[in-house]
Amino acid sequence: MIQLDYLSLLYKGYFFIQLTGENSITRTVQSNKLVSRNGSIVHERESFWRELDFEKGGYMQKVFTRVLIKDEDDNILVVQDRKNTWNFPGGKQELGETPLDCAKREIQEEVGLSVHNLTEVYQGDFYFGDTHWKGYFYFAESVSGVPSMKEMGKIKGIWFVNREDKVNFPMELSGVIENIFNSNLVFHKETMWV
């Protein structure tokens, strides 16, 4: 029997969970590996996460958020966060944050905007490689500030686009990105700049 002791910290997208087994040896789960305190791998199976009790906090899901912000011409703000890849601004949820809190924090950190009213327009499950993420997409009903590159080491460009084929989005998000641009999810919505 493995018992969850506590969630110790979140670091660079990995949750570290303290567990105590039948023999009272404390171990740490990082990603999909069960390791002993000395670092040797005790258990390495992708399905190990599913063996923990989801309902009792034995697993913390990786979560990211993205925010859609329109300009006065109905173009949507995108940021270049990799050499040839663009995305809606947003990022990884930190320990203790709700997805909504994460979205607001990431927009301020990445592009210097304050968002005042967000509406969820999509949520879904995504796989980047073999890592499962829960994604939340929000529409900004109201923002203030002037978009600028705040994280110079991370953000390489800012642009407003009106079609998904103007830039290269991450392949893993291509279905939802196409749906966002080609459906009524945000077509009739406007962002108020205050």
Structure write-up:
- The chain has helices at 48-51, 99-111, 174-182; strands at residues 3-11, 14-20, 26-30, 33-36, 41-44, 62-68, 76-82, 85-87, 90-92, 114-128, 131-144, 157-161, 192-193.
- It has 194 residues and is mainly beta.
- The chain folds into 2 domains: 3-51, no CATH class; 62-193, Nucleoside Triphosphate Pyrophosphohydrolase (Alpha-Beta Complex), CATH 3.90.79.
Search tags:
194 residues; mainly beta; five-stranded antiparallel β-sheet; 3 helices
Task: Furnish the topology, listing elements before pairings.
Layout: E1 3-11, E2 14-20, E3 26-30, E4 33-36, E5 41-44, H1 48-51, E6 62-68, E7 76-82, E8 85-87, E9 90-92, H2 99-111, E10 114-128, E11 131-144, E12 157-161, H3 174-182, E13 192-193
Task: Provide a concise account of the structure shown.
Helix content is 13%, strand content 44%. It is mainly beta and 194 residues long.
Q: Tally of extended strands?
A: 13
Please report the number of helical segments: 3
Find the CATH superfamily of the largest domain. Nucleoside Triphosphate Pyrophosphohydrolase
Mean pLDDT value: 77
Any idea how many domains? 2
Derived from helix and strand composition plus strand pairing, the structural class reads mainly beta
Instruction: Characterize the overall form.
Output: globular
Give the class-level CATH name of the largest domain: Alpha Beta
